[in-house]
Amino acid sequence: MPVQSNQSLDVAAVPTLGRRRTALWVAIGVAVVSGMLWAVYPLPDAAARLKVMPRTGSEFASEDIALTPTELQVLGRVNVVHRRYQLGETQFYATVIDGTKDRHAVHDPRYCFQGAGWKVLSERKLPLNGGEGHLVHAVNGQYEVQALFWFSDGAGRYTSLLRYWWQTTLRRMSLGRSGAEPVLVVLQSFGPQQPDWNALAPTVIESLNL
């Protein structure tokens, strides 16, 4: 004996369901194609900013430092400046990374310190002209380091990695029309003398066009 169901098939809903599925597949297709285009489209990068970063000045001198094989694995596809500067009695490394060609090369510098065995003792925000930087104090055995980092698009300075990802994503979605590519700037102490970044940072920013 056949069993009768109290539920009836809504015939009108069948075409609607089909249209929704079609729209979903179209949206997925557009997203995939757009992602492929964004990945290969040659966005304007920040190479010009890195190129004009001075090597010498009236109060400072520098030398380029070659990247290690490990660093090349991460930074091999991007524009990067890695130098050791002498400013008065103070020595420091300056690393500037333009991640236009590979955003995965840009990440929170604290991960690098911790991955290399450094223990972060303290960290705080440091006010800078046009924004702020992040100051990290770390040790590894008998060695001590102070590092100051920030992201900059030439108009402002900030420390939020989430903001960096949003800004660079917007650039890719707009094919570079939303603004300049932000770069990651890392200033790291070198040698036993630790710099006073509160006093030194404004001079470095102005001298090196960071």
Number of helices: 6
The Rg value, from CA coordinates, equals 25 Å
- Judged by helices, strands and strand pairing, the structural class is alpha+beta
Tell me the count of domains.
1
Proportion in helices: 25-40%
Shape: elongated
N→C terminal distance: 84 Å
Largest sheet, strands/sense/barrel: 8 strands, antiparallel
Number of distinct beta strands: 8
Average pLDDT: 83
Stretches where pLDDT is under 50 for at least 5 consecutive residues are 1-5
Q: What percent strand?
A: 25-35%
Order of helices and strands: HHEHEEHEEEEHEH
Written description of the protein model:
- The chain has 210 residues and is α+β, with helices and mostly antiparallel strands.
- The chain has one domain.
- Helices cover 34% and strands 30% of the residues.
- The protein has 6 helices and 8 strands.
- Strands 1, 2, 3, 4, 5, 6, 7 and 8 form an 8-stranded antiparallel beta sheet that branches.
- The relative contact order is 0.15.
- Mean pLDDT is 83; it is low at 1-5.
